[in-house]
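User: Predict the structure for this protein chain, please.
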Amino acid sequence: MRNIPVITKNLLIINVLAFLAYNVLGATGVDLNYLCGLHFFLANDFHLYQLVTYMFLHGSFTHILFNMFALWMFGCVIERVWGPKKFLFYYLSCGIGAGLMQELAQLGEFYWMASNQIPGFSAGDMVQVARNSAPVLNMWTTVGASGAVYAILLAFGMTFPNERMFIIPFPVPIKAKWFVLIYVVIELFSALTAPGDGVAHMAHLGGMLFGFFMIRYWNNHPTAGYNQGGGRQFFDNLKRSFDNRRHHRQDNSGWGSSQTRCNADTRRETDWEYNARKKANQEEVDRILDKIRKSGYDSLTKEEKQRLFDSSNDN
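Assistant: Here is the predicted structure, written as structure tokens:
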């Protein structure tokens, strides 16, 4: 947990605590998912705050397990690239956007059901029919972080489109951009062919849709809002960490310590050679980090990626 970025870690904790509270309160007859889940906006039990609270609730163990695993897997990467403020803004905004898309989908479903059952039904009759159908509409409740998590998945695919991933059941690694596209197709197909399967497919697509337009806007306006510094923040912090540790080692590598190493025959290179080698390695790391800032991580060769990885482990 100590290696998980702060926002991702706290989102994981909040979701787990909310799931535990749902089960504990359920034993006392209090349905937390009903109270804080997202209701259809024409239902009596709809409240505006539910557009936020619904994304921290889950209906089953498998539901929260898969969502939290995806949040941990992709959220850690995106938060380190974007920074905590931008990541949190993106997560909450896409979660709310997913809820709005789900509301729109339920509105269409409600209109279709009413028009098929009530002769002469029109859009002007929706409010009155909704009041008469309150017991049924109050059961239309949506919970889950899936909309926001799917948006994080999209962000990973758009940030690292050519990064290869091993995904079950595919026997070979596939690029992140194709992985995201496959999920979009599956969700779209499910929304059109299985609207009553109890899964909020439109919320999943809605989160990704809001995320897509948000990322496109940030890419077209690199100095606007939360995109100041953009993806360079993570790599700037990494470079700063390398610099600090390099200076720390140089400060501690005086003549006495070097002489002791030589006398003990535990080191064959001189102090000057040691510092020269470390300086050359650091210059190579700096060059790789500058290349990432200018052209992105995917522009690195396999050897450069390995060098960056080795340098990180050495430090």
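The chain has a mean pLDDT of 78.
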